[in-house]
Specification:
DNA Primase, Chain A, DNA primase DNAg catalytic core, N-terminal domain, alpha+beta, 19 helices, Dna Topoisomerase Vi A Subunit, Chain: A, domain 2
């Protein structure tokens, strides 16, 4: 029987939303963070079948059936486990890994890298409390961080000379090749001796949703560039799919139904310290499709918190345009805009948690962001201007794949553009838009 690595199966479940697969067989109705419907396993008149997307499972109270997306496909289609995995992998566009000694070696390598990175994390934490780590500890305390939050996020320090990292890991039986593969040591191609990747930097461990260290971010304390440096990508770290702080935010976000996406490490840490323990951040990149899928598995309406400057507004536009094709009934994206010149870290430190709470409560839906994006704060007064604006809005709504949701967006835009009393067939326009994607 074909064996699939835990890494491959986790990625498969992440790429194929369970509610989408089951929704093709069962008419699902959203109730909060769950979906309900009639049992696909036996006849019933009242719905007792529940799907919980953020936890990745279904449960049928009438028959007792329970499982994940793979189990569902096996039960419904009468497939074996490998056949169900292959069916879902085809849906996700994923190539089935060959069960070879090489693939088993890669899986063992991934587990080993987690152990290497965990050992490095412990070393960096230790260095922060040593005399050579004093500049890093002073920096963190100067940013208003408490010892408790420093420990919660496992912050550390990499001294200029590495602080004996190589020697410490070697004593634990970790080879230089594994240190290099984990992104801790670089070996120049010209034959020069290897050197530590992180030097004279405050260290931010990056963990996956299960809390395993998969990489590091380092902030320089001197004038050098880049100010922030992330680990190189590896067998366990792919930057475009990782959200910093997700391991700590996951439980509180599921409990509260809210998750806040900030821009950087310090924003996330300061938010958590101020009891906004649902904060995460991408790793110096724009929000990707992988990030959005991960967020929607946790809550239906993530809040994207962006700076109020021009760069923040451009980031909002990019996020909205990326999210539009992925929207479907029941999921969305909210946008919270910081006051000019502020980010979550600075706002909380200068004006307190209440000011941050006000920003989050004023978050706007994606439809409003699209409207503001296209109007650019200027009213369309003449018929010609309105017609041009309508065309732009219809093109944006046309990005939405779901026809029902696309129709609702178009109707909302048209009604807002042409108030009651205007001689325009609003109902006709919206109906046409639903049937004919822009």
């Amino acid at each position: 029987m074909t064996a699939f690595s835990p890494h491959f199966l986790d990625e498969l479940r992440a790429r194929v939303p369970i509610e989408d697969v089951i929704g093709k067989r069962v008419k699902l109705i959203r109730r909060g963070r769950e979906y309900v419907g009639l049992s696909p396993f036996q006849k019933e008149k009242s719905p007792s079948f529940t799907v919980v997307p953020d936890k990745g499972f279904y449960h049928d109270f009438s028959s007792g059936e329970h499982g994940d997306v793979i189990t569902f496909v096996m039960k419904i289609e009468g497939l074996t486990f490998p056949e169900a995995v292959e069916r879902l992998a085809a849906m996700a566009g994923m190539e089935i890994p060959t069960d070879t000694p090489e693939e088993r070696e890669r899986e063992l390598r991934r587990r080993t890298l987690h152990e290497v990175l965990e050992a490095a994390c412990v070393h960096f934490q230790k260095m922060l409390r040593m005399p050579e780590g004093k500049p890093g500890l002073d920096y963190l305390r100067g940013r208003g961080l408490t010892d408790e939050i420093i420990e919660r996020f496992r912050l550390g320090f990499a001294p200029e000379g590495g602080g004996g990292l190589g020697s410490a890991l070697a004593r634990a039986g970790i080879s230089p090749d594994l240190m290099r593969e984990a992104g801790l040591i670089l070996r120049p191609s010209d034959g020069r001796p290897g050197y530590h990747y992180f030097r004279d930097r405050v260290m931010f461990p990056i963990a996956d949703a299960r809390g395993r260290v998969i990489a590091f971010g380092g902030r320089t304390l001197g004038p050098g560039e880049p100010k922030y440096l992330n680990s190189p990508e590896s067998a366990v770290f792919e930057k475009r799919s990782v959200l910093y702080g997700v391991d700590l935010a996951l439980g509180p976000a599921r409990a509260s139904g809210r998750i806040v996406v900030a821009e950087g490490y310090m924003d996330v840490i300061t938010l958590h310290q101020a009891d906004f323990d649902v904060a995460v951040a991408p790793l110096g990149t724009a929000l990707t499709e992988e990030h959005l899928r991960a967020l929607w598995k946790i809550v239906p309406d993530p809040v994207l918190c962006l700076d109020g400057d021009a760069a923040g507004q451009k980031a909002a536009m990019r996020a909205a345009e990326r999210a539009l094709p992925m929207l479907r009934p029941g999921i969305g994206l909210l946008f919270a805009t910081m006051p000019a010149g502020e980010d979550p870290d600075s706002l909380i430190r200068t004006k307190g948690s209440a000011a941050m709470d006000d920003v989050l409560h004023a978050a706007l839906p994606i439809s409003e962001i699209v409207w503001r994006m296209e109007t650019d704060g200027r009213p369309a007064e003449t018929p010609e201007e309105r017609a041009a604006l309508e065309g732009r809005l219809r093109r944006q709504a046309g990005r939405i794949s779901d026809p029902m949701l696309r129709g609702h967006f178009v109707r909302a835009f048209v009604e807002r553009l042409w108030p009651r009393g205007e001689t325009v067939a609003i109902d006709h326009l919206a109906t046409v838009a639903r049937g004919h994607p822009c």
